[in-house]
Design brief:
The active site is at residues 85, 218. The protein folds into 2 domains: 4-130 and 272-289, Diaminopimelate Epimerase, Chain A, domain 1 (Roll), CATH 3.10.310; 140-262, Diaminopimelate Epimerase, Chain A, domain 1, CATH 3.10.310.10. 17% of the residues lie in helices and 42% in strands. The chain contains 5 helices and 18 strands. Bound molecules: ligand LBFN2T5F.
Length: 290
């Protein structure tokens, strides 16, 4: 392997990512390497990592290669794997545009959650077709310290627990994953969103992400929040035929989420590349084996 590995740094509403272009899937990125790169003091720093691989070159994506040339091999900041990352896929598309692999307009991206259609707009916004939400039955409770809230179980390809709170400050410091019950609701862990109303069609959230901790934004989380809020408010576009749109404020910005009558959810927000450079492969080797 070369002694230098190219990387970029980007964010979507301040959900930030280390981007590692690796078209032929030649770079070994075990969990310890990802955690080292995402470390904010000893590494580059990021909530997660976007490994950019041609679908045909990745065993998890080769079946999608006919539909989508590029696979977003997404990793959480602790090195764990997740099914989908909504902010990540916008930033991934922005990287492809910058690298000359995509132009304004529509683009298909393979993810572990299936092929997603991304629209790169002239004004700089990026819209993603996030698929449909699944809302499993059953009551869920999440807690922080002495406080507990009922939560809505929403699956956006990855798992979410959405709790409505009177005040986002009630979620406390969110330094560790909020406990939930029953354990069987989320056998692989969960992303927890705390939501407060801001006005008609307008909410704000804080999120504790599985594998990353509290982050400044979560795209799949914002979609889960929009659907949970719609159902709480008695709105279901699949029943009424009327689309529902929510503005979702996150600590790092604003996302706009629309659920269409066919159940498809679209998310629009910014995606920014802020830097590019080279990783020292010897450092990465040492950090990985430490
Ligand atoms: N920040 C992401 C979600 C990333 C994955 C999540 N932490 C998980 O483990 O499911 C987003 O923008 O959706």
């Amino acid at each position: 392997m070369s002694t230098r590995i190219a990387f970029l740094k980007g964010h979507g509403t301040e959900n930030d990512f280390v981007i590692v272009p690796d078209p032929e899937n030649a770079i070994d990125l075990p969990p310890a390497a990802v955690a080292a790169l995402c470390d904010r003091r000893a590494g580059i720093g990021g909530d997660g990592l976007l490994h950019v691989v041609r679908s045909a070159a990745h065993p998890e994506a080769e079946g999608m290669a006919a539909e989508a040339e590029w696979f977003m091999d997404y990793r959480n900041g602790d090195g764990s794997i997740a099914e989908m990352c909504g902010n990540g896929v916008r930033v991934f598309a922005r990287y492809l545009q910058r690298a000359g692999h995509a132009t304004e307009g529509d683009l298909a991206v393979a993810t572990r959650g299936g092929v997603k259609t991304v629209h790169l707009a002239k004004n700089g916004d990026v819209t993603v077709g996030m698929g449909r939400a699944v809302l499993p039955d059953g009551d869920v409770t999440v807690s922080v310290g002495e406080r507990s809230w009922p939560a809505r179980n929403v699956n956006m390809g990855n798992p979410h627990a959405v709790a409505f709170v009177d005040d986002l400050a009630h979620a406390g410091d969110l330094l560790s994953p909020p406990p939930f019950s029953p354990a069987a609701a989320y056998p692989d862990g969960v992303n927890v969103e705390f939501v407060a109303d801001r006005g008609p069609g307008h909410v704000a959230l804080r999120v504790h992400e599985r594998g990353s901790g509290e982050t400044r934004s979560c795209g799949t989380g914002a979609c889960a929040v929009a659907v949970a809020t719609a159902r709480r408010d008695g709105a279901d576009p699949t029943a009424t035929g009327t689309p529902v749109t929510y503005t979702v404020d996150v600590p790092g910005g604003t996302l706009v989420i629309t659920e269409r009558p066919d159940g498809e959810i679209e998310m629009t927000g910014p995606a920014v590349i802020v830097a590019e450079g080279e990783i020292d492969a010897a450092w990465l080797d040492a950090a990985t084996s430490a």
